[in-house]
Amino acid sequence: MTDSPTRTEIDSLGAVEIPADALWGIHTFRALENFPISRRPISVYPDLVNALAIVKQAAARANLEIGVLDAQKAAWIDEACTRIRAGEFHDQFVVGVIQGGAGTSTNMNANEVIANVALEAQGHAPGRYDLLHPLDDVNRSQSTNDVYPTAVKLAMVFSLERLMAEQALLRDSFAAKGVEFANVLKVGRTQLQDAVPMTLGQEFHGFATTLTEDYDRLRHTVPLLTEINLGATAIGTGITADPNYAATVCRHLREITGFEHVTAADLVEATSDTGVFMTLSGVLKRTAIKLSKICNDLRLLSSGPQAGLGEITLPPRQAGSSIMPGKVNPVIPEVVNQVAFSVAGADVTVTMAAEGGQLQLNAFEPVIAHSLLQSLAWMTGGWRTLRINCVDGITANLDRLDTMVSTSVGVVTALTPYIGYAAASALAKTALLTHRNIADLVVEADLMTRERVTKLISPARLSGLEAVTSAIPIVDGRDLGDPSDPSDPRA
């Protein structure tokens, strides 16, 4: 029991005592009792709270315009929503992110908070619903079934824009490293085996290109999220809403957000359909998994520092062991890997929830919203820490790279057109056995001059940046010809 003052609120199930200073009411109280599951209130997603306030604000303006809400009540609601959008009262959005009822508890929570914020601002006590009612006034012309999905989509657009901004910055960081490492030769690998030379710059430029492609995929999902079903009310028929409401509220939503919202052509279909969430989820999974692969590469390339590849060094961020002094782990790429694993799991959740919808409504949009908003938030944070705490500080281990390239049998591949496959194979075998410099072996075998072999295995040639435009004479390794002949490749 508590001695704190309360107020009594009544719904169709009976009366409940609500803390007198709470800006939420009886419907929120029921949800708190029914869904003590996630231990995470919807306020953990500020974008969702702000989106709910925007939808309610647009509705109040539309209701005023079409004449179903008086000017004073509309103004009170409008002002309360503006304050919530400014960051006030988010702590009053307390219902759990996982809830039954297709988001009804979230909508009720928003209605009650907006009504009570407005009442307090006018000097009235919370709960004076005779002056401004959460359902009759704040929820006028609306249903959870059009408010909630519209707010969720809007919240996702807000979150997606921040993710895209981080995606662009991370892309630029990788691109800058591509320029910085443009002339740094390294050994390329396929199937974890030495292949042929490339530059470290090419590798990082490839990372930047991947991020650019995924940025475009993310951008293309924004217009899909701006199709809304406001005005559909319960199942898409628009019951309880004025015929002019849907077009009017959509226009006000566009004016408030600046996004090109459009009303779905078929509101019955739009109210039950969750395809856009699967589309977004798929794009997020693609983006996360591809960056996770890049993080795997960063961990491999930096492995060591003595017994691994050791081609690059990641910025040391923290001690890596409680038992091994001096050990430093690639913790930043590792955390991004884990974000990607979570995003992939969330995609399965979204898929199952979308499939589980029945008839005119999908009851599982709360878990869809939670899964996607969490993925967006975690990806944004993960991308930011990867850029700031890892990529921007990566350095190339030049001596290590030079040694690996100069003794790599992959360099021989570039000489094959000039000395023939058989001679190249013999050189590769010798290099593997002796760990000697390839150029030295070529010159000692009297296959080419030092000047010639140096030119052919220059960074530009080995990495393909300098194209060979003339026909290359193929030489049979069994007959190396006459070195005094100007046409001989050894000349």
Automatic annotation (TrEMBL):
Cellular component terms per the entry's GO annotation: cytosol
Domain Fumarase C C-terminal: 412-462
Keywords: Lyase
A molecular function GO annotation: aspartate ammonia-lyase activity
Gene Ontology biological process terms, A to Z: aspartate metabolic process; tricarboxylic acid cycle
Domain Fumarate lyase N-terminal: 14-345
Signal peptide bounds: none
Name under which the protein is recorded: Aspartate ammonia-lyase
